[in-house]
Structures are given as C-alpha cells and as structure tokens.
Design brief:
Oligomer: single chain
Distance between the termini: 32 Å
CATH topology: Lipocalin
CATH architecture: Beta Barrel
Strand content: over 45%
Shape: globular
Number of domains: 1
Amino acid sequence: MRPEDVTKLRSEEPRDLWPEIERRLSLRSPRAHRARRRVPTVVAAAVVTVVFGLALLGLTRMLRQRPVLIGAGDIARISVPEPQPIVPGEGAIWVVGARSNGGELWRIDPATNQAQPVPGTEGAWWPAAGEGAAWVTTCHPNDQTDCAEADLLRIDPSSGAVTSSFRLPDPPTAIAAGLGSVWVSSNERLLKIDPRSMSLVGSFSIHTNLLGIADGHLWATVEGSGVPGVAKIDPATGRIVAQVPFHDPCTFGASDQLVIVASCQGGRPYGTGPDRLAGIDPATAEVQFDVPLSSYGDLAFTDGHPWIAAWTDSPERVRVQQLDPSTGRPTDVSASVRPGPEPWMEIGFGAPSVFIAVSRDSFWLTHVDAKDVVRVRIPK
C-alpha cells in the first residue's frame, strides 16, 4: 500500500489497526512457496523496530471492492478463514485455513462450492491429494519452535475423516502424492511413505523443498549444500538422475510436458537483473527456455499450458496469465480478479504470494481475499 493509501484509510475508517497488525505478525505462514530462510536471532532483533516502523506501509490489498473479473467470469467466493495452500484431487479441493491455534484443513465440494473443515487436522501445514486419499502435514509448536511435533495425516476423500497418521522425524517442507507413494520433503531428508500401510519405505539424504511428479519421476527444488536448482529423482532409489542449476528456485510446477521453476522477489543476487522463469523438458532434463519474469507467482498447468498467478499493481488485482509452453512468454489469454470487501493483508515487504489450484473448468485462488477461496472460470 502506498503512503497516501494509509492516510486515506485512516481518514475513512477511524479504527485501531494495531490489534490486526499484531495478530497478523503472529500468524505462521504454512508455506511461502518454499522453505524460507530463517533469520538469525541477532539479525531478527536488529530488524524488529524496522518491521514495526514499516508495518503500516507494508499493509497491502486493502481495497474495498467487490471481486470483478476482467476477461472471464467470476464464479464464486467460498468462505474459508485465511486460506493459504490449496490443491485439487480425489473429487474435492483441499485448502489449509486458519484457526485460533494454527491451521486446519478444509474440504471444498466443487459441485456445490460448500466448504467444511476436516476434524482432527489442527496444525495443518501443507495439503496434497492422490493415491486414493487426501493428505496433510501438521505441525504443533512449543516454546522454542513452531514445529516441535509433525505428522502426516491420511484423509478419506468421501467422508472427510482422518483415517491414519504417521509421525514425521523432521518439520516438513512440502508434500506430494503419486508414483505409488506419498513424498514429504524437509531440510534433512526426503521421505517415501506407503499410502496404504502408512509405513516408511525410503529415507533419502536430499535437501528438497517443493515437489512435483513428471515423466515417471519425482521432481524437486533443491537448496542447501551444493548447487541450487531442480532435481529429477528416481522414485525407486531416491537417486538424483539429473539436476538443473537455477538460482533461488522459489515457485515450481511439474507436468509430463514441462517442468517450470521461477525465482521470486529479492532471492537473486543484487545487480543480477529481474527474476527468471525456466522451462525444463522432463524427459531429457534440458532447459527449453530461461526468460525474465516481471511478477513472480504460483504456477499451474491446464491442457499443456503453464499459467502463473500473481499480484499486479496497475490496478491492484491478481492476474492469472497463460504462458507459451515453448517460450515461457505470456500469451494474449489471461484472467484477473480484484480483491473483495476483505482483501488478503500481509505485514511485510511486497505483495502476498498467490496460491493456485486447477480443477474442472476453474482456477481456485487464495491470498486474494482474507476469508474466501476465489473460484474463477478458466478463460479460453
């Protein structure tokens, strides 16, 4: 938000914003599209006053408008408190929403647009769907960390009941279901779990973050020691069979036609230019394109085309932009939606990241409205 917008907000809405600011600062984001680097305690202490000094300037998405879709049809806003990571699969849409003591998994019926919380998923962190079930990782904090105990939960997609759990050895980063297994990444290892017996069948010493499946292999963004980038992993052995260097692999998508990865807002070294978007052939692991990216965002696929969902500033709205799969350049097909009466608000630096899922004829977006999942028809 611009400084003049803060002044306007103060004059039009004479209410105390600091309780909301403090509440937002205390929220744990289950995902920032990757495992964000933790700030050392000394550095954190040094920037506390800066954060509070810039808090009002960091308020974003405070427009007071109805959602208006530009270029397609706004289908629905579905009530879910503070929705964040979202995935489709097994006949439903699964999204992590907020509750007083952390996250909670919600199930959306795409036929009715009705959302219901899934009991027993308190502390929900990251969802997935596949292998006949829905899945979510959970984290429970203590005084030292926001994830002292972590679990993987299996959910019956029809009843929405938790049917089994598996205790994770480390705080999870991301999760994927496919290739006959459930995969959980962390800073320490990549776990392979049998979806029926809920037993551990593989533990591989790879620092993986975001996960996807393409060309019969597991794909992951990798950081930590070694060269950051994207790795193609043999699902039977956990061995990296190909690796593509890419600085700051922040958002990621995988399909049998293309694997895409992008950097985001400040991850690249100073002076190295804008963020980048790269496309990789999943069969050969060869880079097909590497192009500048004006606005980073979450990535998804429909009918072989990649899409990127990101905030824009002129005017403030979320645009879902189709990309050419051979060049990574924007096509002339896109949809955009303005935030509703209670837009998503973030205290910090820059706009909130958008989460996107694709199912049926629709995009499902979060980080647009504070209390809604926004369902948007896919433009043709």
